[in-house]
Amino acid sequence: MKAYELILIMDPILGEEKIGQIIDKVSEKIKTLKGEVDSVEKWGVRRLNAVFKKAKRQANGFYVLIRLKGPSNLPAEVKALLKVSENVTRYFLTNAFVQTEAPVEKKEIAGTPLEAVNVGEIKGQAVGESK
Question: Closest by alpha carbon to 2, among 36, 25, 48?
Fold first, then answer.
């Protein structure tokens, strides 16, 4: 199963209840396609930077991030559902970047500890001073 991220932008006038119903509808579609919803993050109302054809008078949007896993046919099916939905102004579905944490190695430079120096100082002498 591949990991995906889905960002939805909806009209904030719909209200929390209607937005919750839309999220539930998308989650059910994902589950019927043998996918899993990992998390749902409601980012809240944010100002839109562009004017969309679907909502020309809309200045703000309610953003929702859904992290999910599923088979390779899942994105096409979810996009088909969102394309015909009147309440979703815009959506973006992409492969998720799963970051694995690598162990951090501490290294010493030639076995000597590093020491702090003042800016403009090279090996104990101020820059511009002559010997």
Answer: 36
The total of structural domains in the chain comes to 1
Could you give the CA distance from residue 16 to residue 26 in angstroms, rounded to a whole number? 15
Residue the block writes with tokens 């008078």: 57
- Residues 111 and 26: beta-carbon distance below 8 Å: no
pLDDT digits (tens, 9 = 90+) for 46-103: 988 877 777 777 888 899 999 999 999 999 999 999 999 888 989 999 998 766 666 6
Instruction: Give the SS3 label for residue 100.
Output: coil
Helix (H) or strand (E) holding 126: strand 125-126
With respect to residue 124, please indicate whether it lies within any of the assigned structural domains.
Answer: no
Q: Quote the domain boundaries for residue 13.
A: 2-95
Could you tell me if residue 115 is inside a domain?
Answer: no
H/E element, 24: helix 15-32
Q: Which of 66, 65, 53 is nearest to 27 (CA)?
A: 66
CATH number at residue 57: 3.30.70.60
Burial class (CB in 10 A: 0-12, 13-18, 19+), 95: exposed
